[in-house]
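Deliverable D5.2: sample structural annotation.
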Amino acid sequence: MKTGAMILGIIGGIVGLIVGIIALFSGSLAGLSGSMVGGEAARAGNTLAIAGFLVFVFAIMGIVGGAIAKNKSKVAGILMLISGLGGFISGGLWIFPGVLLIIGGILALVGQKETA
């Protein structure tokens, strides 16, 4: 179970990084184009860029959780659950990485209880 948690955490984190980069890039472009015209478009672009940054942070947290899943499964499970749920709050494209991280977090916690 710990190997599955590790794989799911790392894959979910990598997909989350891709989602975060896309959100950062599109938010930056929308913010730049919106600042030329002004108004709501600039604020929407800035909001998307902030959400992309948060998703990026949660993705890195998920990768770290996946990387330590074999040695410190309780900490890894908590990190992956926080990153999975936090990504859902931060961004809308987080469905696939969020599901992977939440399942990986549950596997890490269940695997930790079995070996104890």
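Annotation notes: The radius of gyration is 16 Å. The mean pLDDT is 81.
The annotation will be released with the project's public dataset once the embargo ends.
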